[in-house]
Amino acid sequence: MGSALCLFMFMNFLLFLSSFNLVMADSNSTFSSSLQQPLCHDSERFALLQFKQSFLIDEQASSDPSAYPKVATWKSHGEGGEGSDCCSWDGVECDLETGHVIGLHLASSCLYGSINSSSALFNLVHLRKLDLSDNYFNYSEIPFAFGKLSWLRSLNLSYSAFFGRIPMELLVLHELVFLDLSGNSDPSGNPTLMLQKPSLRNLVQNLTHLKTLHLSQLDISSTIPHELANLSSLTHLFLDECGLYGEFPMSIFKLPSLQYLSVRDNPDLIGYLPEFEEAIPLKMLYLSDTSFSGELPTSIGRLGSLTKLDVSSCNFTGLIPSSLGHLSRLSNLDLTGNQFSGPIPSSLANLTQLTVLSLADNQLSGQIPSSLMNLTQLTELFLQENILEGPIPSSLFELVNLQQLSLFSNYFNGTVRLRLLSKLKNLTHLQLSDIRLSLLSYNSTNATFPKLNLLGLNRCNLTEFPDFLWNQDELVWLSLFGNEIRGPIPRWMWNISKETLQALDLSGNFLTGFDQLPVVLPWSRLYRLRLDSNILQGPLPIPPPSTFQYSVSGNKLRGEIPPLICDMTSLILLDLSRNNLSGRIPPCLANFSQSLLVLNLRGNNFNGPIPETCTMPNDLRVIDLGENHFQDQLPRSLANCMMLEALFVANNQIDDIFPFWLGALPHLMVLILGSNRFHGAIGNWHTNFRFPNLHIVDLSYNEFIGDLPSEYFQNWDAMKLTVANDLWYIQAHPTYQAPGFGLTFPYLYSMTMTNKGMQRFYEQVPDSFKAIDFSGNSFKGHIPTSIGNLKGLHLLNLGGNNLTGHIPSSLGNLTQLESLDLSQNQLSGEIPWQLTRITFLEFFNVSYNHLTGPIPQGQQFDTFPNASFEGNLGLCGSSLSRACRSSKALPPTPIDSSSKQGSTNKFDWKFVLMGYGSGFVIGISLGYYLTSWKHEWFLETFGKRQRKWTRIERMGLRS
Q1: What's the pTM value of the predicted model, to 2 decimals?
Q2: DSSP state of 97
């Protein structure tokens, strides 16, 4: 009985196990079935294949180094079994339940071609995420069919070469939480997408669920709408370089979820920082290159989540708040290019996570806090262009992670031992120029000295090349200008950084020559070479063909220009002026480089004819051949130099008629032909040769005859304009792009004017300066009244001719005139009282004519000496020893309203006494002056309004 019971129970147990296994097997089958993703829909697979076929695969279409063609794996049924399920294709995401394509992730997929609203893409109506960034859609307009994709939550079309207006249909995508249309621009960086109709206000009013909005480099050109502050879910807002203006709504700073805010590169956008609350979650705040102003509020120290703060190139003032030291998570702090004053707060030493600290180009004073040695993570430190003083703390050289250190243009004192730099093993960029201290040489060849990419030791009182340069084989930029280095350039210099050096500046020293000068300098990647203002002797060195800028002016080089210079086909600027070079110019010189902007051969001994110029398309802006021995005629091919702005051929032996054909050049501003053998009459004005932009013309000391060119005076439109403020200087802007950086360096003209023993010197010529010098010729006839229309003139010299008749009263309209010379002619009649209107007149000379009557009184005329009027027996007045016989002969000078104008437009003349002579001799010499005329104004204007801070500028590279 017991055994039967046991058998029964055992059989029941087996039955239970069997039933359990069946249940489990069925359960596993059901579970496995639930995990299997359904195949994609045929219609969507077909749409994806059509989309693929509408584009080419081009590796150049994507800039990301990791880019690859994701669509290459997409295959139809006939092309392979496993690849036929589109849900398994690279970049395709499907819904796990329905099998519909809900995501297309094709960023950096090398797609090249156009797209429009008929694209099969818009058949994928279930899409929620679409990323087509970093492809090349050939400047297609954004298709309006995007409005069909009503389920879209994320759309990224950035950096994909789209063009035109943002379509209104984009505004119906109400589910969007992520929108990125940034970075669509042409090769010059100009925006190609516009958000204007619809406007930014329309967009934020419709897309109310946005969390990320990235519209950088779109042409928005509007104010920022206050409605942006209603996007309570917004975490990321990027509006860089959008042409925004007006005042930034302060309420945006208080968005409860905002973590990343950037409105950089909108120079017309004004704003102020608010008082910040504790709860604001900002992690990144970028306001650089805007017009934000005011002080940094103390409450900025409450932004405890902040990791990056960049307010560079704004208009902030006041002290740097010590509360910044509370931002313990800060890794990047950039306050460059403002007007902060006072000391560097010692509390910054609390920012132990900082890797970048830039306080450059402010008005910071005091000493560098030694406590900055606590910033052990620091890799970049920029303190240049302040008024810091005292010694450079040795603790600075304990920051062993430093890669870039820039301290130039301060007022430090004491000495710096270059051997301390051996501690900074990671240092690649070092700028210690203009810091008023002495550098003690590093006399060891120890290999532990850091390998530098950039080294600037300008004006550091060096008397020899630093020895540590021997082992520098990775230099890209080396600048030692303005020191006292003497003797020849040593032989070992030809061996440093042969494969990497791109820029070398040894100008402004006392170098005498070259120790074993190579036929061609050995740096194969050299872009910029400056050897000017030394005392170099011997033949002209020839840089490698890669060179963009070559300046060796102001030396004692001799001999002819070697033919090898014709290999330098990349030249933008060539300045060989003020040497003793001789012979003829190689015919290639003015034609071999389509990129050449500046050609300056002034002050040598070149002879022969000027070679044909501009025989191929070119970009020449300045040609200076003055003070040589050139002969024959001006080459008529100069008429092809359509971009030419200045031509200087004074003080040669050119034998030609007036080059009226140069009047067809639309940009020609300066024409200097003085002291040659030009002859004949200037002739009649031609409609096609108008000189429409001429500012300065010098025909002095030639052999011109005939009447003054009245019709030219009537049509020189640029000389009729008066400019209220002298904000610009006549200059060329050579620019070159090298790997890793771009550089623009203004090339400004300087002018020397000598008038009867008085030399006046412009280190920079304002764009508003207008001058005519026809002195020392044989012009005859009357002075045309049409000269009175040239109301922008500052200098008029007609002295030393055979002019007759009266002085026209219309000259009184030249209210900007500062110098008027009509001496040594045959003029008669009275001096018109209207000349007293010219309240800026500093020099006036009508000597040695046949003038009669009283000299006008009042205004500037009371300041002119007797010499201004001598040689006119019929003149009388207080300026001469001959008093007029009757007081009626001296009527009071009428007061004109124009005589009451202020002196704000007046040039800041610099003058010195020089030599003896008569008439004007205008010489124009080119230079690289960046600061001297109205120094403070220049820094404010060019430093704040025109400069965008690039890394290379922050290191203080001399241009």
Answers
A1: 0.81
A2: T
- CB 527, CB 546: distance < 8 Å: yes
Contact 505, 526 (CB under 8 A): no
| Residue 822 contacts residue 841 (beta carbons within 8 Å) | no
Q: What mean pLDDT do residues 46-58 have?
A: 96
Angle at 328 (CA atoms; ends 325, 329), nearest 5 degrees: 135
Buried b (16+ CB within 10 A) or exposed e, 293-305: eeebbebbbbbee
pLDDT band at 443 (very low <50, low <70, confident <90, very high): low
Q: Does the pLDDT of residue 281 top 60, yes or no? A: yes
State the amino acid at position 866 in one-letter form. N
For residue 592, with 0-12 CB atoms within 10 Å meaning exposed, 13-18 middle and 19 or more buried, which class applies? Answer: middle
Q: Which amino acid is at 799?
A: G
| Model pLDDT, residue 758 | 60
User: Across residues 365-381, what is the average pLDDT?
Assistant: 95
> CA-CA distances (angstroms) from residue 345 to 320, 321, 340, 368?
7, 7, 12, 9
Query: How large is the average pLDDT for residues 236-260?
Result: 96
Indicate the burial class of 130 (C-beta count within 10 angstroms; 0-12, 13-18, 19 or more): buried
* DSSP 8-state secondary structure symbol assigned to residue 384: -
Put the strands of the sheet holding 556-559 in their side by side order: 537-538, 556-559, 580-583, 605-609, 629-632, 653-654
Helix, strand, coil shares, percent, the chain, to 5: 20, 25, 55
**How do beta strands 580-583 and 503-505 pair?**
unpaired
Rg for the chain, CA atoms, rounded? 37
Mean pLDDT of 615-638: 91
Tell me the average pLDDT across 790-805: 95
List, for residues 699-758, the tens digit of each pLDDT value. Answer: 999 999 999 999 899 889 999 988 765 567 777 776 666 555 556 667 777 666 555 446
The CA distances from residue 625 to 562, 599, 634, 761, in Å, are: 18, 8, 11, 20
Beta strand 731-732 pairing with 747-755: antiparallel
Q: What is the DSSP annotation of 519-565? A: SS-S-TT--EEE--SS--EESPP---TT-SEEE--SSEEEEPPPGGG
